[in-house]
Amino acid sequence: MSASLDALAGMDAAALERRWRQLFGAAPPPGLPPAQRARVIAYRLQSIAYGDLDRDTARALDRLVRARDQAGQGGDDTPIRILVPVPDRRGHIPGVTLSREWAGVMHNVQVLDAGYAWNGSTYDSLSRVAQLITGTKWNGPRFFGLRAKTTGGREAGAGRIEA
Hints:
This protein is α+β, with helices and mostly antiparallel strands and 163 residues long. 42% of the residues lie in helices and 20% in strands. It has six helices and eight strands, in the order H-H-H-H-E-E-E-E-E-H-H-E-E-E.
């Protein structure tokens, strides 16, 4: 990864355009400066290698951009306050074992690269495992203690950012 990112620094505008076309299958937006093209390409390479933003973070960033755009239309320079969930990845790292006692039975779930192993089977969703354990629908991360209950309409542990 390091070598790929270092190579971007030495590319001219034509080389960056070729690399953009390889990654995105289309020409870069007109007027996008080469330095910005390199940043977008670097992000794309890293997201392919390490994974992209989780859904909650992507939504929060989208709300932030929309709020900024709306505030900019009014000419107001007041900072925008938006709640951004701070992802807690403790229970989603492959190799971690999640444990929960239910109805007097201890249940252990192994986090895999692609899913969760429990009782000799693999499942795509932690919520599905929680449902099978309890017989009713549960939020899997909440069932295993990875996410606190909401308080006042917001997820406990949510952070704030100012833009």
